[in-house]
Write a structure and sequence with these properties.
The chain is of the alpha/beta class and 1122 residues long. Helix 5 (185-201) crosses helix 6, helix 10 crosses helix 13 and helix 37 packs across helix 39 (943-950). Residues 72-98, 1082-1122 are annotated as: Disordered.
């Protein structure tokens, strides 16, 4: 029964505690068996009544070498014999079901621990080891794949074949959880005291303790402060967490270089997973993909080397490669002289590439390959138990931390490396264990399967505790139950193992998962697909790539000089920064914990990032946008005792936070909210028949499911979709792409798509694998529409066209009709409107040029079309009716625009384009969290607002300053109403009123709290007058296009001086005219910027929980198999 099992579990736990309060029963008190402990946090968000007291336990594991010729089952001793009193037949002992919590006296630690121990090793003491054999092994692995030899596994599998097995395995037991978070200094001290006690119980002079960075740095500080109390503890910085941080640093190096696009295109990585991959958040994904991508790049490099030197591998060289695939490491040696010479020459060629002799792009990708080989050597050192390799590779890992602004890891990995370099003198017994590989844990008999200690902790106690059926999820509110669960783990696992053995259910996996045939073939297929994708991108090692430029392999754009300087010298500069830091710390140990200055990360992303400039007193300065920048600048301004109303009349921040996010991206609103408001005005019925169907072509293309593999199939399917509805005339309207364009911002948001030229040669050409992504590429879309026009003109499409007339409006309007099974193509000049960029206005143009009464249906989901169409109803022929067929799937519906127009009246309908443009559309930002519903209700109620918006698009608003001022004043009142500031007609006055409402004090003598300003939410204020004016000008210019959509040439005005500025052949938003701040604060901005940088550095010194349980969701619990 459940009750009986619970009683047995509780009693066995008590028995275990009686034997030892700290060491689990499986751990033998034998000083000859190497033993270590590891601690981490276990966080779970438990539902509590007040939101407090959620689960933050400190959990630990203890691991010990398994004694030779001893099975795991024999580790468990029998329970102690009960006393005679308890065995008396007349007295039955009551078995307990509840385990009493083991409480710890948490002693507060009033001191602030500091690192006072000096760094003993100098930069001259750093030793290097000969990695020639490891390089040869990796080269043979790469060449095996380059030659496409059969059944060649990935890196772990290849190495597991050639490494001999050893018998030094460890058993894992769980320590009693502590009901407190390890972020507390007193809890860290408790773990250190427990570790000392365990060492005493096991009669060992030293013991190693492994933590993640956040706990390790506190433990090292305590060890130095309380010296010599904890001198017998060797504190490890968990290598798994170092790897995670390193993947994040590598992600910064390759961000936006084009490599992630190739990975997505080759189906190695999903588009939505790119950021997680670059941020290093998914460990398994990173450790699988980085080596695979590196292998693919190295093969491309090797093949170019063969081509460059005109080399062909002979049969005897290939046979030697095959022999070496199964040769043990101890005897691994290239015996074929020709192959040895080839490998030596390739190493020279690689070094030349690293030095930039074959071009900057080739150099950058060889640097990336080198960075991943550092990770592979770190992994190899742990898996193979090579302590000298482990010590030598850590400084190379640390170099990247200094360059990629990870100062916490940079600082403490330097300290960790220093401790490792002296371990032979300071911890001689531990040094012997490290030489045997005991700085990692091996849980299986498989070769090359040793794992980082902190990773094993994540895979064991943290993973077990998180399991729904067997973990602590169902009793997270009880620390006593959690402690019983942890201490009883050994008993449970022994019983389960024995039951499985008796039933023959145990499986003995003796090979790496990478060696299974299925995985070998899957990985090889992905590798070949990745390399093949470079045919559509740029091969970084090709002679066609300019040698004097660093090229983005996706877009073909060259990097700026600062980006080249940063990326091509990243290892050298990182090594210099690390050595400089060590030298400074040796001169003054207090330097160790001082801030490490940030290094500007000039990667490819910098070239695509719009800089934020601040205009103060006529000078332009660059200031970093931060969440509290508005409040801090406001505070600085108040220091000059300037009238607050004057301060608030300035923009203050470089981008208006009422219309922009902190990164400069504009605020968007749900445009469909306006359509929903309009739909609710009247009931709707579908048309009895359709005379003319006008389709938004790219919208229809996006709805295509099960996209055919070839362009001919796509063309046929598109025409089938076009002709599904019964209409004798069908107009298919496509966007054009002008350069420059006021949609440049929208296009820039899709920059990740490869903007390379695209050519479609014929119907048999295969489409790109990620078709949906390519639909964001304007060059691809233009080529696709051109192909549709050509293909639909072929006679095979006559059966689809039938008795219909099809118009395709792209650059010109092409008309298709079918006569006697032949397609006749002609240009319709009347319907051609080449000056129109967007399909929205082209659709209106087509509707207004139907010269007979008709039932017109527009197939689209774009709210812009609804607003423009309702304003153009008076341009339609009499007795014409218009519906919008909107939505998809089960939400497909007809919206009767004619009925809505009749219900709302001409005034409201003609004001809609101006209203829609100023409250947020594709070309203009929206007001933060103001939406469309409330502004629309204000519009309907006010004739004054309607008349003002009707004037939008009128040339008078551009050429007549007085008329512009009159309308702008009405729009100011409209904006004030949106922000609930009634009876105020000036937005600057509204800003002041809202500020006063937020900071009014109850006592006039109360001191003003400046700290409140730091958290002031500037996005809650309306834009200032200068910002709103630019929004007004943009909306007016947009309406010159929208309100004249029925004309061939809708506007003669340009975007410049109408809310946009032209820079680098692109239109950018002009946010305001004049100064950003009063010129009194000009001198303070430099100091502010410097303080920001210092504060950002210190932010990294705070507790680092970047690799907590939530972020480690992608850790494989059976990672030793991989």
């Amino acid at each position: 029964s459940y009750q009986g099992v619970e009683e047995l579990e509780t009693e066995t736990t008590y028995t275990s505690i009686e034997k030892s309060t700290l060491c689990p029963e499986k751990i033998k008190k034998n000083h000859n068996l190497f033993t270590g402990v590891a601690y981490d946090n276990f966080d779970r968000f438990v539902e509590t009544t007040n939101g407090k007291d959620t689960l933050h336990d400190t959990v630990g594991i203890i691991y010990q070498n398994i004694e030779l010729n001893t099975t795991e089952e024999s580790q468990m001793s029998e329970a102690p014999t009960s006393s005679n009193e308890n065995n008396s037949p007349n007295k039955k002992k009551r078995r307990r079901r509840t385990f009493e919590e083991i409480t710890l006296d948490e002693i507060p630690y009033p001191k602030r621990p500091k690192m006072t121990s000096e760094l003993q090793s100098t930069v001259d003491d750093e030793g290097t080891i000969d990695c020639k054999k490891y390089t040869e092994i990796d080269n043979i692995w790469m060449v095996s794949h380059a030659l496409a030899l059969p059944d060649v596994p990935m890196w772990v599998g290849f190495n597991s074949r050639i490494y001999a097995r050893d018998d030094s395995q460890q058993l894992i037991s769980y320590l009693t959880p502590i009901n407190a978070s390890p972020t507390s200094t007193s809890v860290v001290i408790e773990t250190m005291k427990q570790s000392k006690k365990i060492a005493e119980d096991l009669q060992q002079p030293y013991i190693q303790v492994t933590y993640d960075l956040a706990i390790a740095k506190v433990a090292l500080q305590i060890q130095a402060t309380e010296k010599p109390q904890f001198d017998n503890l060797f504190i490890h910085l968990g290598p798994f967490h170092i790897m995670m941080a390193y993947f994040k640093a590598v992600g910064k190096v390759i961000s936006d270089c084009g490599l992630s696009n190739v990975m997505v295109e080759s189906s190695l990585l999903a588009n939505g997973s790119v950021n997680g991959f670059l941020d290093g958040k998914h460990f398994n994904r990173c450790k699988r993909l980085h080596p695979l991508v590196t292998l693919g790049l190295e093969i491309l490099h090797f093949k170019w080397f063969l081509q460059h030197d005109n080399i062909t591998l002979t049969d005897d060289m290939i046979e030697e490669v095959k022999r070496l695939q199964k040769c043990e490491v101890s005897s691994f040696n290239v015996e074929n002289e020709n192959l040895k010479e080839l490998m030596n020459n390739y190493e020279i060629y690689k070094q030349q590439s690293l030095n930039g002799e074959h071009g900057k792009t080739s150099q950058f990708y060889m640097i990336y390959i080198n960075l991943i080989h550092h990770y592979l050597n770190l992994s190899r050192s742990i898996r193979a138990g090579d302590f000298e390799l482990f010590k030598s590779v850590l400084p190379k890992i640390t170099n990247l931390f200094f360059m990629c602004n990870q100062p916490n890891y940079a600082r403490w990995t330097v300290k960790y490396s220093d401790n490792l370099s002296r371990v032979a003198e300071t911890y001689p017994d531990l040094y012997q264990g490290f030489q045997q590989g005991c700085f990692g844990i091996k849980r299986t008999a498989k070769s090359f399967s040793r794992q980082p200690i902190d990773l094993v902790l994540e895979q064991t106690i943290n993973a077990d505790a998180a399991r729904r059926l067997t973990g602590v999820i169902h009793f997270t509110n009880s620390i006593s139950a959690r402690q019983r669960w942890a201490r009883n783990h050994d008993v449970r696992s022994t019983i389960i193992s024995q039951v499985c053995l008796e039933l023959g259910l145990q499986t003995h996996q003796d090979v790496s998962a990478d060696l299974t045939l299925h995985n070998i073939r899957k990985n090889t297929e992905q590798l070949h697909k990745f390399m093949a994708t470079f045919e559509r991108f740029i091969n970084p090692f090709s002679d066609e790539v300019p040698k004097n430029q660093l090229i983005n392999i996706s877009t073909g754009k060259s990097a700026s000089p600062s980006v080249e300087e940063f990326l091509l010298n990243i290892e050298k500069k990182g090594d210099f920064l690390r050595k400089t830091f060590i030298s400074e710390c040796q001169l003054d140990i207090s330097r160790f914990e001082k801030a490490i200055k940030k290094t500007p990360i000039d990667n490819f992303s910098k070239d695509y990032m719009k800089k934020k400039n601040v205009r103060v007193g006529g000078k332009i300065q660059e200031v970093k946008i931060q969440r509290d920048l508005f409040g801090r600048m406001l505070g600085i301004s108040m220091d000059y005792k300037i009238d607050i109303s004057k301060i608030l009349s300035y923009p203050i921040t470089s981008v208006p936070l009422s219309m922009c996010h902190l990164d400069g991206t504009i605020c968007k609103t749900d445009k469909s909210a306006l359509l929903k408001c309009l739909e609710k005005e009247v009931p709707h019925e579908q048309p009895r028949h359709i005379d003319v169907l006008i389709i938004d072509g790219f919208f229809l293309l996006h709805t295509m499911k099960n996209v055919p593999k070839r362009f001919g199939g796509i063309s046929r399917k598109m025409l089938q979709m076009v002709t599904q509805l019964q209409a004798l005339r069908i107009d298919v309207i496509f966007d054009q792409y002008f350069t420059p364009s006021i949609k440049d911002y929208e296009h820039s948001q899709r920059f990740e798509s490869a903007q390379l030229e695209y050519i479609i040669t014929g119907p048999e050409q295969s489409r790109p694998n990620d078709f949906a992504k390519e639909l964001k590429n304007s060059n691809f879309k233009e080529a696709l529409v051109d192909f549709f026009i050509l293909h639909w003109a072929t006679d095979e499409m006559a059966s689809f066209i039938g008795n219909k007339i099809i118009h395709v409006n792209f650059r010109k309007c092409h008309s298709f009709v079918a006569n006697s099974n032949k397609v006749v193509l002609s240009i319709n000049e009347e319907l051609s409107c080449p000056e129109h960029e967007e399909a929205d206005t082209k659709i209106i143009y087509h509707a207004c040029h139907i010269n007979y009464p008709a039932n017109i249906v527009i197939r689209s989901v774009d709210t812009d079309i609804v607003a423009i169409m309702l304003a153009h109803m008076h341009h339609l022929k009499n007795d014409s009716f218009v519906w919008m067929l909107t939505g998809t799937g089960n939400n497909l519906r007809y919206v009767d625009l004619t009925k809505i127009h009749a219900e709302l009246g001409e005034s409201v309908c003609q004001s809609l384009p101006g209203f829609h443009a100023i409250t947020g559309c594709d070309y203009n930002p929206a007001l933060f969290r103001k939406g469309k519903l409330k502004p629309y209700q204000l519009l309907k109620k006010s004739i004054e607002f309607q008349k003002a918006f009707i004037k939008f698009g009128d040339s008078e608003l551009i050429v007549n300053k007085d008329e512009q001022d009159n309308v702008f004043n009405i729009i100011q009142r409209f904006i004030c109403n949106i922000y609930n500031v009634r009876n105020i007609i000036d937005v600057d006055a509204a800003r002041l009123q809202m500020f006063i409402d937020s900071y009014t004090v109850s006592d006039v003598n109360e001191t003003f709290n400046r700290k409140k300003l730091r958290n002031f939410d500037a996005s809650s204020l309306p834009p200032c007058k200068s910002e709103l004016l630019q929004q007004f000008l943009r909306a007016n210019y947009i309406c010159t296009i929208w309100n004249n959509a029925h004309l061939k040439n809708p506007t003669s005005y340009g975007p410049e001086n109408n809310g946009w500025i032209l820079e680098n052949d692109q239109y950018h938003f002009k946010w305001f005219e004049g100064d950003q701040l009063p010129n009194y604060v000009s001198d303070s901005l430099t100091t502010l910027s410097e303080n920001d940088e210092e504060r950002d550095i210190e932010d990294d010194q705070s507790t680092d929980r970047s690799s907590s349980d939530e972020d480690d969701e992608d850790i494989d619990e059976n990672d030793e198999n991989n």
